[in-house]
Design a protein that fits this description.
Two copies of one chain form a homodimer. With about 250 residues, chain A is of the alpha/beta class. Chain A has two domains: about 130 residues, Tetrapyrrole methylase, N-terminal domain (Cobalt-precorrin-4 Transmethylase, domain 1, 3-Layer(aba) Sandwich), CATH 3.40.1010; about 110 residues, Tetrapyrrole methylase, C-terminal domain (Methyltransferase, Cobalt-precorrin-4 Transmethylase, Domain 2, 2-Layer Sandwich). Chain A contains nine helices and ten strands. In chain A, helix 2 links the parallel strand 2 and strand 3. In chain A, helix 7 packs across helix 8. The interface between A and B is large, with 64 and 64 residues.
């Protein structure tokens, strides 16, 4: 009895300079193996087909694609999945993976960074496990982890909690909860915000937290504009620092 | 008035195949910029000087080092810091960074993966911020994040809690606490164990947790032996799977 080997699901990280001008060299943030697999893959599942084509054009610039871009199969996740997240188990991504059952390798990508980490994609990975497919995560930039390492806050116990509430009172309450958790357990608390709300979040941080609590903010990771700083709330209040309008990772710790 | 520019603290990730035979190509897991900075750096702070020299020999194989290995300055963290962790703020690493105040760039490395994430180094990063040095995290493999992405568990809310207690009763209690947290809040709980205790931890997991709880285990990340699987406790009980004796990341989620 012959048996077609199944394809793998590759988790393909992308550079963090999505939407930036100019963009750096892709080889500076993606190692050879990641580039090789990206160039060889012809079936994709993504948040956004346009950004995936832009990514593949950059890959093609350093390693020729196995198939012209127009002939590749790029399937977008449904909008409700990539906007609201897909970790509640409601979305069944198995139909997206039928090609893998016929032996086709499939790549999962997001707009920037690692798919399925602070980004959609976990429903696809879950479906791959349910189908018994091999799941292969590839090396590339992950903004949360670069921010955590560079913060100097506890990297041996940490949590990423996603976005904070938009309502001012609820946001301050949540910030104080995260601070209490960080101070009590030593667990660093990381979170993100939609860039245009960075300034409001930053104000809330400085006004809601205790003076001795350490706060880190990291933006422009892997880019020329990179900035990672970590100070006590008290010390932050003495600097006239303006928070970046770029995607920023924030962290609270002891 | 002239002013010597300060050096930066680079966080230099290393391959995850520490202690493995044979080892893969370093270019497959470290991008160009990471290799370039590793090759150009001549002052290092590390958990272990021997493994740092072995790493630099591999870098030299693809990009000549700026200075022969024997002439590089490699400073080990005190043993109590790299064994017990350095996140409690007791260890003052500022004296290790004096060369940076004179303009020298310094690299921070651990034995495998990203320094200061599930590994020592945060005291050095904290000291760099206190001295006003620029901290630059570089791209490379981070086993926790590769495991999380490939688990299919919630990557939009997750925590890494380090090691579990060694005592059997305390370990089961902790596992049930982590399960309760994961089920209540949807926050994926990641943890690690010293490899020779993997089998005992695995037994405890299958016996302490509820049948519907999902458990992932990931080992051999970035290596030919890679395995990442995620199933319900119930489904795991039906497989005669043996847990790997390699470094493994475990995760519990909904």
């Amino acid at each position: 009895m012959s048996h077609t080997p199944q394809g793998s699901l590759y988790l393909v990280p992308t550079p963090l300079d999505f939407g930036c001008e100019p963009q750096g060299a892709i080889c500076d943030v993606l190692p050879q193996e990641t580039l090789r697999i990206a160039a060889a893959t012809t079936h994709w599942i993504t948040e956004n087909a346009k950004s995936t084509r832009a990514f593949l054009k950059r890959v093609d610039g350093v390693l020729p694609l196995a198939q012209p871009l127009q002939q590749q199969t790029i399937t977008e996740l449904p909008r409700e999945v990539h906007k609201k997240g897909d970790h509640d188990g409601q979305f069944d991504a198995k139909p997206l993976l039928v090609a893998a059952l016929r032996g086709q390798h499939i790549g999962l990508v997001s707009e920037a960074g690692m798919p399925a980490v602070a980004d959609p994609g976990s429903s696809v990975v879950r479906a791959a496990h349910d189908l018994g497919l091999q799941v292969v995560p590839l090396v590339g930039p992950v903004s949360l982890l670069l921010a955590l390492a560079a913060s100097g806050l506890n990297g041996q116990n940490f949590a990423f909690v996603g976005y904070l509430p938009q309502d001012a009172a609820a946001r301050s309450k949540r910030l104080r909860e995260l601070e209490a958790l960080a101070l009590k357990t030593g667990q660093t608390q990381l979170f993100i915000e939609t860039p245009y709300r960075n300034a409001a979040l930053w104000e809330a941080l400085l006004h809601s937290l205790q003076g001795a609590t350490r706060v880190a903010r990291a933006s422009g990771l892997t880019l020329p504009s990179m900035s990672v700083q970590c100070r006590s709330v008290q010390a932050w209040k003495q600097t006239a620092g303006v928070v970046s309008g770029e995607p920023t990772v924030f962290a609270i710790g002891k």
